[in-house]
Write a structure and sequence with these properties.
Blueprint: E1 6-8, H1 11-19, E2 28-39, E3 42-53, H2 56-64, E4 71-72, E5 93-97, E6 104-108, E7 113-121
Antiparallel strand pairs: 1-2, 2-3, 3-7, 4-5, 5-6, 6-7
Length: about 160
């Protein structure tokens, strides 16, 4: 695969983009990396990895409140391109994955370590601007109604111009 066009190691920024919240003082981020592949049209794909000792608030947010609708799964979808430090533990773990995305979280119960990763594609270009129809031609007669009444059938429509009998 092509090398990423940018690699970010700003742990707090990666944490915030990963979990949609800022880390607390008790979240101890051990490793973090975000990779992006961009071209002249913008972001094509992205991938991040993070290992941390989570605060009790983050554990509750991810595992109990289940902010990302994670489901237990037997094996995580590990990228073959993960950094060396992203070696997942194999025993005493809870593995949870999002059914809607590539997000997964591995919580090591033995040493209170959380491994998480996600990846996806960039923004798709929007639809091109719709072609505007040409303006309508000006009406040849004033108003929107026809210039005379439609024909009437005597048996169905009463004559409104004469007095009732």
């Amino acid at each position: 695969t092509d090398p990423p066009t940018s690699v970010d190691h700003d742990a707090k920024e990666i944490f915030q983009r990963a979990f949609w919240k800022r880390p607390t003082d008790t979240d101890k981020i051990l490793h973090a990396e975000r990779r992006e592949w961009s071209d002249e049209n913008g972001l094509k794909k992205w991938q991040w990895f993070i290992v941390l000792e989570p605060s009790s608030e983050l554990r509750k947010y991810l595992m109990e409140e289940n902010a990302f609708s994670l489901k237990l799964t037997p094996t995580p979808p590990i990228s073959p391109y993960a950094p060396e430090w992203f070696a997942l533990p194999t025993n005493e773990v809870a593995i949870m994955q999002s059914p809607q995305s590539n997000l997964f979280v591995v919580f090591n119960k033995t040493n209170n370590t959380l491994y998480a990763s996600d990846s996806g594609v960039g923004f798709q270009a929007g639809a091109s601007e719709a072609v505007k129809p040409p303006p309508l031609a000006a009406p040849t007669s004033p108003g929107h109604l026809p210039s005379r009444f439609p024909p009437r059938m005597k048996s169905q429509v009463p004559n409104l111009t004469t007095a009732p009998e």
